């Protein structure tokens, strides 16, 4: 089976080499019978991310480096998935807060017929280490999505997901937001279209890395998410 793993990055020179190494290790140990492409989608970085990405692509046959001048997490994921056609499409955040031991379950859910599989920090079997502030926003967003869309998915924005080729062909082109809301819209639209969605337990640990600055401004992102939720709710009527 062909699997494409998107790794969206923006100014990640401090973690990119290590993160790609960890992804390759997981792929070789856990998905050894599959053909896997790891696509580093550089979202307009202005540090050494591009240099490191090109070096990794030259050294590792599974790694592809893709440079984008326009920024947007969703844009990067979509470009990476489009770059390497596959049977299963995965994306993970570059900080790898979601442990990659979940990869086989994530992929096997798609093999078994699911349209989308989502890592869930709310799954009873998950173990989670994160700040109280992040947990507060996560619970609030979960409640908002439940009220707005009636979604059965407990952790829509978790940064580890996989989709089928059918969802890639049918649903991804419908997703309008190419920023942070991309994967929320992807989940909601997939669920509304009748695709089966599986939630996968994860080991989640947000470990600060010296020299790395998080791209997430939680209050600003919360306001943007609310705006996008209202927009999507209008469209789905």
From TrEMBL:
The keyword Iron does not apply. Gene3D superfamilies: Spore Coat Polysaccharide Biosynthesis Protein SpsA, Chain A (3.90.550.10). Residues 4-170 form the Glycosyltransferase 2-like domain. Pfam families: Glycos_transf_2 (PF00535). GO terms for molecular function: transferase activity. The keyword Cytoplasm does not apply. GO terms for biological process: protein N-linked glycosylation. InterPro entries: Glyco_trans_2-like, Nucleotide-diphossugar_trans. Keywords: Transferase. PANTHER family: DOLICHYL-PHOSPHATE BETA-GLUCOSYLTRANSFERASE, GLYCOSYL TRANSFERASE. This is Glycosyl transferase.
């Amino acid at each position: 089976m062909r699997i494409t793993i998107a790794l969206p990055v923006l100014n990640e020179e401090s973690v990119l080499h290590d993160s790609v190494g960890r992804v390759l290790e997981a792929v070789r140990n856990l998905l050894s019978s599959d053909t896997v492409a790891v696509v580093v989608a550089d979202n307009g970085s202005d540090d050494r991310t591009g240099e490191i990405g090109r070096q990794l692509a030259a050294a590792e046959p599974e790694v592809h480096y893709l440079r984008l001048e326009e920024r947007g997490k969703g844009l990067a994921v979509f470009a990476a998935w489009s770059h390497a056609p596959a049977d299963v499409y995965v994306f993970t955040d570059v900080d790898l807060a979601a442990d990659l031991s979940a990869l086989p379950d994530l992929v096997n859910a798609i093999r078994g017929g699911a349209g989308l599989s989502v890592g869930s920090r709310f799954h009873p079997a998950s173990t989670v280490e994160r700040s109280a502030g992040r947990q507060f926003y996560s619970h609030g967003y979960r409640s908002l999505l439940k009220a707005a869309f009636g979604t059965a998915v407990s952790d829509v924005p978790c940064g580890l997901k996989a989709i089928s080729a059918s969802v890639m062909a049918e649903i991804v082109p419908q997703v309008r937001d190419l920023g942070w809301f991309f994967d929320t819209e992807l989940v909601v639209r997939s669920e509304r279209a009748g695709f089966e969605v599986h939630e996968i337990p994860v080991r989640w640990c947000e470990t600060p890395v010296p020299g790395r600055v998080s791209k997430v401004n939680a209050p600003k992102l919360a306001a943007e998410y609310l705006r996008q939720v209202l927009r999507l709710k209008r469209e789905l009527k």
